[in-house]
Amino acid sequence: MKSDQTEIVRSLLQDFQDGYIARDVDQLDAFMDLFDPGEVELIGIGAMERAGEEWFVGIDAVRDIIAGDWTYWGDVKIDVTGAEIRVLGQTAWFSTTGAVAQTAQFETSLPFFIEKMTAILNDEGQDNQTRLLEATHFGLRRYRESQIEIGHPWPFTLTGVLTQLDGAWRFRLLHFAMPVD
Questions:
Q1: Is the pLDDT of residue 48 over 70?
Q2: CB 152 within 8 A of CB 101
Q3: Number of other CB atoms surrounding residue 103 within 10 Å
Q4: Between the N and C ends of the chain, which has fewer C-beta atoms within 10 Å?
């Protein structure tokens, strides 16, 4: 039998899914109430190092990547019903699967991709080999995506940790991961 707390966490995961379905940037500030404003991280599919490309630390960085996801990423479907959720005191964690489907022609997002690749190449906080590796990985992934039809589902896993803050559950860590292709 599932606990009430487990179902509350599942409801929060559903709220997260609903935000990614709506992708209404005008509602982003309200959506950010799902997160711990002081201690939050979102690790994206291309993360290689803490606070580097695709590893977002802090509420402002998490807000920025979610805005980018809602604008450029595509239709995200998370298996909320099938999520494995565990609760221990004021901490909860979950794991589930999902998929993202490209919804726009590749050319629509190309200026955004070029801007991201340029930022990677110009990141003076990284050595030249790391910049080249990250830019190559990013570019190859975008090239592969450009060869796939609109609507193709790209599978991912999603894991997360939540804590209670003032009696309400909030996301503290989310990690999207995609299989290497």
A1: yes
A2: yes
A3: 13
A4: N
